[in-house]
Amino acid sequence: METKKKMLATLVGCNYAGTRYELRGCINDVLAMRDVLVARFSFAPADITVLTDDRGAAVLPTGANIKRALAEMVARAASGDGLFFHYSGHGTLIPPVKPHHHGHGRDARERDEAIVPCDFNLITGNVHRNG
């Protein structure tokens, strides 16, 4: 008998209220995405973790909390399960964390992408890569 595969999601929205970097629609983006995942793609609400910096939020989307939520999602997954990550908030480009090997060398203008959690503790794309 085949087990039903899980669909797991982590959704993060940062409006940065009260800062000079304030945005106005990121929490709404996350709530709309949650509704779409449940209604259109049959995600179980219990399998969706939502982190926002809304007033009164139980868990804020700090760098550490986002990394923890992603690690927990990966730990819950089994072979064949679907994983989905959605981020709405500021992003930035930073100098490379590790050198890349593109042909003869790295273009000095190349940068790594990072997301900006509500505590401004940047998260790069290298969070869950091995090696």
TrEMBL record:
InterPro entries: Metacaspase, Pept_C14_caspase. It comes from the Eukaryota. Coiled coil: none annotated. One of its GO terms (cellular component) is cytoplasm. Residues 8-125 form the Peptidase C14 caspase domain. One of its GO terms (molecular function) is cysteine-type endopeptidase activity. GO terms for biological process: proteolysis. Belongs to the peptidase C14B family. This is Peptidase C14 caspase domain-containing protein. It comes from Arundo donax (Giant reed).
